[in-house]
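Consortium newsletter contribution from the modelling node. Members have asked for a concrete example of what our holo predictions look like. Here is one, prepared for the zinc ion complex that several groups have been discussing at recent meetings.
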Amino acid sequence: MNVLKNGFLVLPEGVFCGDLVLDGTKIIQVGGTYEARIDDNVIDVTGKYVFPGFIDAHTHMQCWTGMDWTADSFETGTRAAACGGTTTIVDYATQDKGMTLPEALDEWHKRADGTCTANYAFHMAIADWNEQTKADMQAMRDAGVMSFKTYFAYDHLRLDDAQTLEVLEYIRDIDGVLCVHCENGTLVNELQRRMLAAGITGPEGHPMSRPAACEAEAISRLCYLAELADARINIVHLSSALGLEAVRAAKARGKVKMDVETCPQYLLLDDSRYLESDFEGAKYVMSPPLRKPHDIEVLRRAVCDGEIDTIATDHCSFNLHGQKDRGIDDFTHIPNGGPGVEHRPGLIMTSFENRLGVQDFARLMSEGPARVFGMYPRKGVLRVGSDADVTVWDPSVTWTISEKNQHQNVDYTPYEGFEVHGRPAYVFVNGELAVVDGEPTGVKPGAYVKR
Ligand code: URP
Ligand code: ZN
Ligand code: ZN
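And here is the predicted structure:
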């Protein structure tokens, strides 16, 4: 047994001092005092917080995104995730045009199986909505995929409104959830054309061509479609105050079943970053783009007021040198996305330390994603019988994020120089000790999570 002695156990009912006992891949005791035996592995975690392992429900590992391959593989990405305290990712398996959904799922299993330090589940992104795809939806559900994604932007991926409505109806029938990339792609294309015509070719053209109105309009449209179909939706990577207004309007109508995700970049970084010299602004080219300080303030308040259900990263890493710099003469050729899977727990716990408590962190980064994406209570809670995914957080350590000390396989971090309060002292994945003091032990206990 692994015995974590005398920690602050972060439970939905409160924070209690006691022992947590892991037997193989499961939790067998939560709280109280455990009488250790000679062959037990006892770790004193006095003064440390014991969280259910954090879950990042939005990543893109080892993925072709239309312009390039992401820099992190499942191997490097899940190792980095675990080093930061994340024990499960939910990655976007993506159907290319001409591919069936089972083919796409097989392909993602080939990329991930046997290589992962953290657990992994898959959403399925649908790019080719045809008769075969419709016929394969139930097979996805049977294979453990209960969440799907469609896009309103990106020409190689996006579906039109009629197709989106039909996807929603299928998803309702299999009791799934549809995650949607909410940006109006037609508008984005037109605004990009206007920027380039006006001679704006640098990274600053990226946010100018994707204003918050593009997000808000798409969110509003999606909510009406979901109401028509009576299907559950997930608004991913919410980035703007205007987008939040669209969410609130839909919630006020009271008809839509909806959860809302945002990401650290939209809670911490503003659009002045696009003006960094020497093309460094390209580091922040992700969609939706970074917004104004006012948006950050509004979204942070929404997190504190319980309007946001989950915080994920949208980890989609590209190197600045050799990948993003292909767009040096035209910002529309900069691969979209940024890294974050390693740093989310530290960033969120530090930047909200005076506004949220440890139970809130567990809710937003573990319990919430487990509930929304069909993993609760197997994951997302410290409970007898739940999986032995545990993050022991040492609040006494202060350290600084840098490209030099990260495990993400990418040549920068958007959070360079950010001072973090706290670090994972121990991370267990399926009962195996995967990380000590923020460094990997070298094991790869990550398993596929059938949901
Ligand atoms: O820029 C981003 N976010 N790239 C990843 C794909 C997506 O839109 O989620
Ligand atoms: Zn997206
Ligand atoms: Zn994404």
